[in-house]
C-alpha cells in the first residue's frame, strides 16, 4: 500500500482487513491493457462474501466491482499507457459493524510493447452471411447474437487471453511479457458503462468471397464423423485465402486469431454436429493463424462487467438449438470456458506451442474460469491460484514464448538477421549426443508416441549454442526399453529441428567401412522417403587399397537441388537426383589434396540449396534456392574429420548428411 499526495486520495485508517495485492508489486511495469489482480481482503478466518470496487485515477474508465469470497478476490483492472493510480475499495458491511470501506491505493506502470508484431483479432464473415451466431432465444431477443455483439465478445476474449498469459509468464519468472493486441482509436466496448473513444483492440471483419453454402458445407466440417472431403478446401484454407484477399496487415508476417462467424450447430437427424467450425492452429507462408467457430460465443462476456457472471452462469445448455461441444459445454459457464479457452489453445498453436501434458495446450481450458473468478459454481471453496489446475501454460510452452518476437521486452534487442532461420544440427559422439545451434538453444522437448513427456530448459542460459547429452541417460529416464524417443531442438530464433528416433539414430549413426573402420553419420537434412535407397559418397575411396579421390562435382539446380553428380580420379561417377534439362548446371573442380570440410545448407522438404568450403579455404558459389531453414554440415569438433556424404535422391536431392570419423 502507498499513500498519495493527490488530495483526491485521502489516507485511511490502517486495518488488517485492508485489501492487499499479492501477485503484482506496487509500482511494477506491465505490458497489457487489462491486468489480472489477485489479493486478500477482510478477515481470513471466517466465511463471508463481499465486494471490491476498483476506481481509476486520471483516466476516464468507469469503476468496476468484483467478488470477495472468504477474503480472496480477483479483479481485471483497466490501465492507460503510463503510470496508473488504482483504488481498491473493500465493502466491510458483511463482516463488520463499522461499515466504513477500507481502501488501498496501488500504482502500476503500463508500457505497451509497440515494437513487437501484434496478435490480430479477425472475424470471418461469409459473402452472403446473415451476420448472426447461434444463441439462446433470450439473447437473440436482446441482439446479443449479432455481429456488433460478437465483435465486443472477441475483443473482451482477446484481453482475457492477454491478462492470463502475462500472469503465467510472470509466475514462470519471465516478467509480465505478453503478446500485444493490434489496437486502434475507436469506439471501445470493454466497459458497458461509458463506451467512448479509446485505444482498443481492433477487430478485422474479413468479408470473404466464399459463400455461406461453402463455409457450412458438411463435407468440410471438422466434427463430421464421416470425415473431411479432401477434394474440397477445408475451413483453415478458406480462412487463409480470405485473409490474403483482405490484404494488409495480412500481406506480411502476422499472427491472427480468427473466429468463424457463420458456424452453426445443425440438429437435423443426418447432422448433429457443428457446421462451419474447425479448431486448428499453425500457419504457412507469412501467416500464423488459429481458428475457432462461433457456436459457443453466445456465452462469452462482452464487457469486463460481465466476466464474472459469464464464468459463473449455471444455465443449462439447450441442446435442441445449441451445441454441447465435446460433451463438456452442458452449462453456459462451461461453454464460456471451452469457447474462449479452446480458442486460446489454437492461438497457442499460432504462437508455435505444441500439445502439452497439462494446461491450455492439453484440455486445461476447461478450468479457464478459475483464472478470473474466486468462486466456481457448485464449489464451496474459494479458487486461489493454487487451485486453478488446468488454467495454466505448461512450462515448455512458456519457454517458447520467452523468445518469441511477440513477447520481446523493450530493453531486449531484436533477433539478429544473420541468425534468422538457423536450425540446430546434431551428431553422435560415441556415448554422447551433441547438439549445436549458433542462434542459441532455449529448449529441448522430449516426446514418446508424439506426446511431450519431458523437456530440458535452457532459457536461463545466455548463449547456449552447444549441448552434450548422454544418450543412455536420456533413454533410461524418458524412453525405457520399448518407447521410441523423439526430440525437438527449439532455438531462440523459433526454428525447430527434430530427431525422430533417438535410439535408431544412435545405433545407425555408427557404421563400419572398409579401410576406415568405425565411422559416424550425422543427422540428415531434408525429409526422408524410406522407399529411396541411401547413397554413400566417400571423398577418398579405395580399390585394392589404391586411393581414388573425388575430383569434381556437377550440380543442377533451380529453387531446389535437382541433382549432384560426383566424379572420381578413376573416371567413375555417381549421380543423385534426376539428370534432365531443367535448371542451371554448374561444376566445381577439386585441386590436388582438396576436400570438403563444411557445407552450408538450406533445407525443408528437400535440399533447397548449398555452398561448400574446402580444406584449402576455397568456397563455392551458392547452388540452388534459399528456402527452408539454415544448417551447417561439418565434423562436430577438431577431433573428427569429414570423409564423405550420404543421403537420398529422386527427382530432387531429398536428404543430405555427412560421414565423419575420429582423426587417427
What does this structure look like?
This is Zinc metalloproteinase. It comes from Rhizophagus irregularis (strain DAOM 181602 / DAOM 197198 / MUCL 43194) (Arbuscular mycorrhizal fungus). Pfam families: Jacalin (PF01419), Metallopep (PF12044). Keywords: Hydrolase, Metalloprotease, Protease. The chain has 664 residues and is of the alpha+beta class. It folds into 4 domains: 91 residues, Sandwich (Immunoglobulin-like), CATH 2.60.40; 288 residues, no CATH class; 88 residues, Immunoglobulin-like, CATH 2.60.40; 151 residues, Vitelline Membrane Outer Layer Protein I, subunit A (Aligned Prism). Helices cover 15% and strands 35% of the residues. An 8-stranded mixed β-sheet has the order 1-3-6-5-4-7-8-2. Strands 25, 26, 27, 28, 38 and 39 form a 6-stranded antiparallel β-sheet that branches. Strands 12-9-13-17-16 form a 5-stranded mixed β-sheet. The protein is elongated and about 105 Å long.
Amino acid at each position: 500500500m502507498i499513500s498519495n499526495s493527490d488530495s483526491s486520495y485521502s489516507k485511511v485508517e490502517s486495518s488488517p482487513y485492508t485489501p492487499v495485492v499479492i501477485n503484482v508489486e506496487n509500482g511494477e511495469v506491465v505490458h497489457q491493457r487489462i491486468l489480472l489482480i489477485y489479493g486478500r481482503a477482510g478477515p481470513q478466518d471466517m466465511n463471508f462474501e463481499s465486494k471490491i470496487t476498483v476506481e481509476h485515477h486520471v483516466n476516464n474508465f468507469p469503476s468496476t466491482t468484483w467478488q470477495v469470497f472468504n477474503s480472496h478476490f480477483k479483479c481485471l483492472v483497466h490501465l492507460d499507457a503510463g503510470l496508473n493510480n488504482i483504488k481498491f475499495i473493500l465493502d466491510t458491511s458483511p463482516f463488520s459493524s463499522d461499515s466504513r470501506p477500507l481502501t488501498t491505493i496501488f500504482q502500476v506502470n503500463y508500457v505497451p510493447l509497440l515494437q513487437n508484431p501484434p496478435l490480430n483479432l479477425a472475424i470471418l464473415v461469409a459473402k452472403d452471411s446473415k451476420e448472426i451466431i447461434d444463441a439462446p432465444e433470450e439473447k437473440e431477443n436482446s441482439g446479443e447474437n449479432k455481429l456488433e455483439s460478437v465483435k465486443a465478445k472477441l475483443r473482451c476474449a482477446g484481453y482475457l487471453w492477454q491478462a492470463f498469459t502475462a500472469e503465467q509468464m510472470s509466475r514462470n519468472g519471465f516478467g509480465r511479457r505478453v503478446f500485444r493486441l493490434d489496437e486502434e482509436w475507436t469506439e471501445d466496448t470493454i466497459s458497458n458503462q461509458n463506451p467512448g473513444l479509446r485505444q482498443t483492440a481492433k477487430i478485422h471483419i474479413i468479408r470473404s468471397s466464399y459463400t455461406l453454402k461453402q463455409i457450412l458445407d458438411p463435407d468440410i466440417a471438422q466434427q463430421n464423423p464421416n470425415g473431411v472431403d479432401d477434394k474440397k478446401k477445408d475451413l483453415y484454407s478458406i480462412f487463409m485465402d480470405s485473409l490474403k484477399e483482405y490484404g494488409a496487415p495480412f500481406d506480411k508476417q502476422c499472427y491472427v486469431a480468427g473466429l468463424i462467424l457463420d458456424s452453426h450447430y445443425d440438429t437435423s437427424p443426418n447432422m448433429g454436429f457443428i457446421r462451419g467450425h474447425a479448431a486448428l492452429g499453425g500457419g504457412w507462408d507469412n501467416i500464423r493463424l488459429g481458428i475457432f467457430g462461433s457456436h459457443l460465443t453466445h456465452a462469452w462476456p462482452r464487457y469486463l462487467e460481465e466476466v464474472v457472471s459469464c464464468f459463473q452462469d449455471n444455465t443449462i445448455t439447450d441442446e435442441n438449438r445449441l451445441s454441447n461441444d465435446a460433451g463438456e459445454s452442458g452449462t453456459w459457464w462451461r461453454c464460456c470456458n471451452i469457447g474462449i479457452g479452446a480458442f486460446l489453445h489454437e492461438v497457442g498453436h499460432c504462437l508455435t506451442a505444441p500439445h502439452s501434458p497439462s494446461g491450455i495446450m492439453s484440455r486445461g481450458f476447461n478450468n479457464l474460469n478459475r483464472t478470473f473468478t474466486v468462486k466456481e459454481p457448485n464449489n464451496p471453496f474459494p479458487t486461489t491460484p493454487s487451485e486453478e489446475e488446468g488454467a495454466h501454460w505448461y512450462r515448455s510452452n512458456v519457454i517458447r514464448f520467452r523468445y518469441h518476437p511477440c513477447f520481446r521486452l523493450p530493453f531486449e534487442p531484436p533477433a539478429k538477421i544473420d541468425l534468422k532461420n538457423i536450425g540446430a544440427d546434431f551428431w553422435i559422439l560415441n556415448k554422447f549426443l551433441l547438439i549445436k545451434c549458433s542462434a542459441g538453444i532455449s529448449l529441448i522437448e522430449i516426446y514418446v508416441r508424439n506426446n511431450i513427456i519431458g523437456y530440458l530448459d535452457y532459457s536461463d542460459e545466455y548463449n547456449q549454442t552447444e549441448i552434450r547429452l548422454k544418450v543412455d541417460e536420456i533413454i533410461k529416464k524418458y524412453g525405457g526399453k520399448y518407447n521410441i524417443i523423439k526430440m525437438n531442438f527449439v532455438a531462440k530464433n523459433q526454428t525447430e529441428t527434430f530427431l525422430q528416433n533417438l535410439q535408431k539414430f544412435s545405433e545407425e549413426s555408427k557404421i563400419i567401412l572398409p579401410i576406415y573402420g568405425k565411422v559416424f553419420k550425422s543427422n540428415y537434412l531434408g525429409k526422408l522417403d524410406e522407399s529411396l535407397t541411401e547413397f554413400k559418397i566417400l571423398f577418398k575411396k579405395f580399390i585394392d587399397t589404391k586411393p581414388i579421390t573425388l575430383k569434381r562435382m556437377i550440380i543442377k539446380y533451380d529453387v531446389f537441388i535437382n541433382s549432384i553428380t560426383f566424379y572420381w580420379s578413376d573416371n567413375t561417377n555417381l549421380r543423385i537426383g534426376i539428370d534432365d534439362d531443367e535448371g542451371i548446371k554448374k561444376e566445381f573442380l577439386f585441386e590436388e589434396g582438396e576436400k570438403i570440410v563444411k557445407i552450408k545448407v538450406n533445407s525443408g522438404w528437400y535440399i533447397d540449396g548449398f555452398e561448400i568450403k574446402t580444406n584449402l579455404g576455397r568456397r563455392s558459389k551458392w547452388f540452388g534456392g534459399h528456402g527452408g531453414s539454415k544448417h551447417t554440415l561439418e565434423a562436430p569438433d577438431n577431433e573428427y574429420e569429414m570423409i564423405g556424404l550420404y543421403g537420398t535422391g529422386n527427382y530432387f536431392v531429398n536428404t543430405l548428411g555427412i560421414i565423419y570419423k575420429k582423426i587417427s
